[in-house]
Amino acid sequence: CSSVSSSTVELARTCVGTPYYLSPEICENRPYNNKTDIWSLGCVLYELCTLRHPFEGSNLKQLVLRICRGRYSPVSQRYSSELHLLLHLLFKVSPRDRPSANSLLKRPLLQQQISRHLDTQLLEEEFSHTVLHRHTPAAPKATNNTGVCVCERECVCVCV
């Protein structure tokens, strides 16, 4: 976290929303990819289990330092070992060590929940293909009053 102090001020000026879900790579102003969303998913899952954030600080700099270290208090032992392992994987400090969205969906814990809540036909439709979002969105075709655009490739992007 050597670049934390300079990037912390920049983050405070450029980010919109809560900093509690930021990944270490964003805190350190490093390049990031979809694995940053995996980290944020871990933050949300942790908060659902504990009703508190996994990383907290009395100020933004302290919060960023704690995120970069990746140490958090474990969730209650009443949760399954699979959930504990899942959080451990989601909170890997190095993005390349975090699982992909597709590999998460194949985990037994998630497979059980998915099959409980989706009927067989919908399950097959939703998971018969691999989700890839590596393309660059095409130029927006139209903008509505909310600032949301519809692109040619059927993605939704926010126009700023």
TrEMBL record:
It comes from the Eukaryota. Signal peptide: none annotated. It catalyses: L-threonyl-[protein] + ATP = O-phospho-L-threonyl-[protein] + ADP + H(+); L-seryl-[protein] + ATP = O-phospho-L-seryl-[protein] + ADP + H(+). SUPFAM superfamilies: Protein kinase-like (PK-like). The keyword Lipid biosynthesis does not apply. Keywords: ATP-binding, Kinase, Nucleotide-binding, Serine/threonine-protein kinase, Transferase. It is an enzyme of class 2 (transferase). Its EC number is 2.7.11.1. GO terms for molecular function: ATP binding; protein serine/threonine kinase activity. SMART domains: S_TKc (SM00220). Gene3D superfamilies: Transferase(Phosphotransferase) domain 1. InterPro entries: Kinase-like_dom_sf, NEK_Ser/Thr_kinase_NIMA, Prot_kinase_dom. Transmembrane segments: none annotated. This is non-specific serine/threonine protein kinase. It comes from Cyprinus carpio (Common carp).
